[in-house]
Amino acid sequence: MKNTLKVASLGALAIFLTACNTVEGVGKDVEAGGEVIQDTSNDVEEDIKD
Q1: How far is residue 30 from each of residues 8, 26, 48, 49, measured CA to CA in Å?
Q2: Predicted local distance difference test score (pLDDT) of residue 1
Q3: DSSP-assigned letters across all residues of 1-12
Q4: Which DSSP letter does residue 43 get?
Q5: Rounded Cα–Cα distance for residues 47 and 41 (Å)
Q6: pLDDT tier at 42, thresholds 50, 70, 90
């Protein structure tokens, strides 16, 4: 019974750690998308001023 609990706990930990990496990756993707929008906005602003 103890071995089953250990295996289940390790499995849950592995899933949790994988989920953290996935959420971190999504955060980086969203941040990169925001930077592209900000850069484009700055380019348009500069074009309007010229």
Answers
A1: 33, 6, 27, 29
A2: 63
A3: -HHHHHHHHHHH
A4: H
A5: 10
A6: very high
Q: What is the DSSP code (8-state) at residue 24? A: H
HSE-up (13 A, CA, CB side) for residue 34: 6
Amino acid at 46: E
pTM of the predicted model as reported, rounded to 2 decimal places: 0.57
What value does the mean pLDDT take over residues 3-22? 80
* 6: amino acid identity, one letter: K
Chain center to CA of 44: 28
CA distance linking residue 34 with residue 47, whole number of Å: 20
Can you tell me the distance from the alpha carbon of 30 to that of 15, in angstroms, rounded to the nearest whole number? Answer: 23
